[in-house]
């Protein structure tokens, strides 16, 4: 803004032009931040695919590609994905996670910082893969620790060192969701807990696991929406990026 | 009934007398079962003290003592207990558990069968003691494993052998109630889970722990009402008695 | 562990080998318990079929059969079962209960201990059969008492002796779920109550029966998740096994 | 209205007077019905005492007495009742039911029709007495069957004949509320079910009993609000009055 | 029973025969009541069709017809009904109400007693017709007052006299369910309220109308389960029968 | 009424005729108001299409057209609309909003009063268009401000002047519904908030946005049912009409 | 902004000064709007008294009075109000509504526009008075129509003309909340509905009335939070002000 | 472990001693981790004061001080705190936050990393201060941005730069909780959202804000339990510590 004012003062810019720029500034100010954030951090643009037609998604992809950004579309059902891939064959589709995304460039793991994706059962894999692939699409390294639920807690303990060494954990569990509390008590980094709708009866579509995680007696746990693997990964990547800076060789 | 009919046939009993006895049979049939169950199993009569006045409780105690049974009154607030003890000084009052009960005769632990009372935190002690004292009042041996919640899971593992050797476990936890699942995955005997109302916010007065326990991914867990230490103990004693017979020296 | 240490002390085992064994011990310790429990108790491995593809289930069956264990798969829809039976024709499929399981060896009923499976209405039969067949697959004797709901309570009374003589009852009811309380007041053994989602409107998919059973005014009742016939049977078999030991001829 | 119009036509009534009367008719039309209903049926005016001050209740009583009606005030706490009785010493106060009401004239029981007030436990007595005293204040005969809950179902069976002979039953139960279903299955007259807030934990202040009663598998049961003994009695009296006419000697 | 005992005393009946009869008595005692109730009151046997296969329903119909009773099957979907009518062409199917029932004999309306079936909107017609046809199948006269919801309250007032003259009203409403309160304030006979699941959003599948009706500020209203037109009719018929006796010419 | 009475008094009207007119008055009184309201305000008749068959909707359209009114049918699925348009080809169908309506005459925007339709995301467009088209069908000018949710609040600020200048805003948002509070804090006219069921998990079908809007810390916000774009528009049009009168050139 | 830029261009303002003003503009921009809105509309500043100490409220009053604004404090308990009045004796306290406010100047009712405050029962008076006094404090005329609930609907009809002539109605009802639908069907202006927490049992602290109002089958109704008389009045005043402009003599 | 085995192999350690150490290792393994975590990170020991007596808290403080750790006790009511300070006068008590804690050593703010504590209203201050003081007790720098709720969004924008420069934000809001979404859309660091129970009516004790935050349309938000300021701070400190390492001068 100072620059614009100086131009006006110097007579290099008319009042009308300055007003347009300042108005734009007000508008693009936020937009810039928006862009800045996306560009600087290398976040691809994200499309929430649920409730959008294949055609709508294609238009958005077209618009994003024009900006030169990578694509990440969540909750894209298989049949819609097939249609879209017909037009954008360069996109990869993961059926388990229902994700459609741009091929990632190989990442070099210079400093070893990674996110642990920990899931309780095989039925939680859809959400777990949504989280894992999202994190990878955002440029973080990921280690998967699947099917380590508390009903057979030795499975967790056999993997606990790998989990402990991560910069942040995403813990995914349905049914009673107890895994988040147990992991939270065993690690010293932040845990992002994702309740899933896996289960039946008094599970009430994920309410049970959600309440479990919100009431966790272990500290260091925060929670995202039921089945929101994407959101958990987004949080985890934010933290992992800080950690990567911290760990970076100097 | 056959006996009565034979008496009628033999002319030793009038029709009127037989009808009275058969009617009584119908009525006392159930009542007998009731008495039989209480007497044979050595269960003291149980008074649910909540919502009853000291005076009402005293009258019931009077009536039970006339039958020669022991007393167990649950949820008796301290001030009511003081009044009642004024009249029945032989009764013991446990303030933590809000239980008022007859002094127990020393039990001989011939075969070592016992009930594990496992609780997550110190705030669950009221419910845990209600369960432990109830089980003792019903004649079972009890081992207490308190404050072994999953936030610091080493506390549980340090005690797991003692829990595993019990005939049945009562697991008491508030907040997210994850302890029941973890214990259920580590022992091979039945687990009676008691959610407690300990917690705040999205705990919703015990709903969180209740749902957790009902949705446990570990097998062998059944659940009683929130804060129902008495009911859990009642179930556990039933199982422990079968186990004591099974273990009895022959 | 002592043995391993002695071997190390004696120079018969290298430090590396000892560490591997101790690590394995830590890991297999839990796994052993796991195996021990399954093997000793004759529990077949259980597969939760819901949300798994026929292919996934086949792989797990393959893996379990390699270990020499029996198979019990719950919640397997008819079409998936048909595919799986194509590959494993020796498995039996029960369509009502949606169970797929290994043929059982004939059980000798030496001491007459059995589990009562008590259900309120014909619509509860799916859950009741899941419980009954599970209990049989786990080696217990079962007596079925179906369609004895409280709306016509004489049906229950006509069967009450058979229920009373069981070692444990599984009581299955939807709608208002009152049957569990009535049975609980008439028997002196543990009752495992299973609310079902049978009903409509203010039944709220089983919530009504669930709350009824949790609040039962009869003692000796514990509850499992809505429609969880498997879980109830698992609990009941644990208790019946203790009872069978107790009743065994000596 | 025809009469008024004829008077106008005949010149016996001015247009203004007719309009006043017709306007009054419109207004008093409803009011008359209101009065008619109250007067003809001998219903005393009813005051809902909760949330009203003693002074407000006194003013309403004053107004009702001026009309010559009897008084029935529900949910009047003891201390408020004491104040009001200071001014209206002729009113009777029942502390259990928190009812304040006019002394009833002796009723002659010509045809034996009566309402059965059936309650599950002693803690339900407040609601049961609200129902019983209300029904009596409205002129019906009442038989009380208290403490006949399903946990000891023989208590119910010992009283079932007396319940069956009533014209209508009011069934009052808290906790799991199963009594309504059992009574509904044993009688052939209408059952008005009243859930009470007696209980704790997953009772959720009466929700458990309410859902139980709404989902009853027995036919002939309808339900009123939690703890609404007054409303149940009001319904029952309506039915009992029809039955009294039906039974009346001719 | 007295008769049996006298026969035994007189030597006309053996003890074994008497025991069989008394046992039968105990069993058939309840069954008899059951039959007595159904037969005397002319209630056809009722089949809850939801969740039963066409084949199962056919078997039950076969069994009921053998007893010589009429048929009333509720919640029978159109395709199932078509199959069943193929075998029992004498049955009538009403598609709106999803009822399948025996043709009724013409009823003579000697004393004019009838049930008012009052519904708020055209979307409530399924439930309203279930109630109306059930009441007719049970032998009551019915008057239908449909589409008289409170949004255009003049529709109700235009019909209020017809409603007032009924012996009992069944009031059916979805969305906010206010119609029950308004009718309850305008009539002096019992009102059976049926909340329906008609609506969307914060209606929560009928919860809104259910709560409205339970909390009605008008007296004389009792409530059945959401969409339970059958249950409301069953209650109404019970009351209408008493009224018909009361009104009968003598 | 006075007129009628005078006619009677003057002998120009018989009592019978007067009674018919007064009765009609009572009945048509409400109906007239109804008509008056619809006609005077230019509201087309509205048909709630959900749960009605194409045939039923056609009959209602026929009846409304006979009265000469315009048509507005909400929640008409595409296939039903196609059938109806076959018969009424003059009707317009908007697939996004599922609205079927009469072509509007061009409105002259004399005084510039308009309704702002503000929506948070593209998934809310169905509800937003239901609101916008309804308002237009009722004769109001509408400005659409779509996809201005708070996650990128600059989008809202870029449009805030256009929103501020409206006479009333309809704010439509799903997920967490925060947009209503933010708009409410920035404008000085009434805000009608519409929660939508857009979202998943702990959104609970719109409950989340509903509660958000009811608890808004900004003043001047009132709320309609989840997804009720029609209802919000109806309210907004009522207010906009007052504003149009206020703004009208004089 | 243009002015500032011209000053800069003309050299009358330094860049630094311009930046400060523009920054201030950004900040005060919103603040100005805020002030503008309050000042221009004559809204007194509003203090939400719940959860604030008497001392905190006094400080805020002090600050507001310094700005020369009137005071309106809601939800101020009696004892707190007494303390505050000790310091600000010019403030008026209404105990029923728990409002503390500045004495209003007499309003001239030039054009007769007024808000109808309609309440169902005497227990709703606290909320009704909060609404009425708030509206008066904001400068609107108010007519009170209290105790006109639907249980005795003639009370409403006797007052319907007065309600119909208002510019907007605030309808306040607890228990089942049906009054809003009935009023909404009888008037042609906007209705702001306020559910109250008056009631018990299945009322669930106002949830029942809230759902009723949200699901109203009458159009033209929008809803505010439970017991939020203030918020309803705020909405109503906004609409009434438009109406006053519309009605103003010209 | 390797070290121990080598000592055994070398004969420097007996088998018994090794077993004790390994056993201890197993037990203290977890405990060590626990200690390690607390010590290394400078976390003081935390006591959850709710439901503990002053005496119990004193004992725990005594035990912690013996270990040389600092004290942080949450949810300590004023009267309890007064008693405890009588014995531990060196502890500081903050009445707003109900925190009792050891005096902190001055922190040097070498690299400027800090946590933004952002709250919506003055009523949220208790939770906000619990978070702020906890974070300070754990060694982080904190900037407070209080009373910046969305109803007057300019307050937020005036402070947005300060919030954006934090390493992590804790956003605290009651009522509708919209602030978290707005902040989440404006910053590029993780946001920990804390719903508070501030509000009334359809707020349902914080449920409204909780659901809002879980469903946030802005990415980068995770949620903790209602009113859990402590838990949010714990999470934030974990992240801020990573950031401090990242920012540290090298």
UniProtKB/TrEMBL annotation, chains A, B, C, D, E, F, G, H:
Residues 113-245 form the PurE domain. Pfam families: AIRC (PF00731). InterPro entries: P2CMN_synthase_LarB, PurE_dom. SMART domains: AIRC. Signal peptide: none annotated. This is Nickel pincer cofactor biosynthesis protein LarB. It comes from Tigheibacillus halophilus. The gene is larB.
């Amino acid at each position: 803004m100072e620059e614009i004012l100086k131009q006006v003062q110097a007579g290099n810019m008319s009042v009308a032009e300055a007003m347009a720029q300042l108005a734009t500034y007000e508008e693009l100010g936020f937009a810039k931040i928006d862009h800045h954030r996306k560009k600087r951090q290398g976040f691809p643009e994200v499309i929430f695919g649920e409730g959008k037609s294949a055609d709508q998604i294609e238009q958005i992809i077209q618009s994003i590609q024009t900006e030169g950004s990578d694509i990440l579309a969540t909750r894209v059902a298989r049949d819609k994905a097939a249609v879209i891939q017909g037009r954008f064959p360069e996109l990869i589709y993961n059926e388990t996670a229902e994700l459609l995304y741009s091929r990632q460039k190989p990442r070099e793991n210079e400093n070893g910082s990674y996110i642990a994706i920990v899931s309780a059962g095989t039925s939680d894999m859809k959400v777990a893969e949504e989280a894992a692939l999202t994190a990878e699409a955002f440029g973080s390294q990921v280690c998967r620790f699947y099917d380590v639920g508390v009903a057979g807690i030795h499975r967790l303990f056999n993997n606990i060192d790998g989990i402990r060494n991560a910069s942040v954990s995403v813990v995914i569990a349905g049914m009673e969701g107890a895994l988040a509390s147990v992991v939270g008590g065993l690690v010293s980094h932040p845990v992002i807990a994702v309740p899933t709708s896996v289960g039946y009866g008094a599970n009430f579509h994920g309410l049970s696991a959600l309440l479990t995680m919100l009431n966790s007696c272990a500290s260091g746990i925060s929670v995202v929406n039921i089945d929101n693997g994407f959101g958990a990964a987004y949080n985890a990547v934010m933290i992992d990026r800080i950690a990567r800076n911290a760990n970076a060789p100097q």
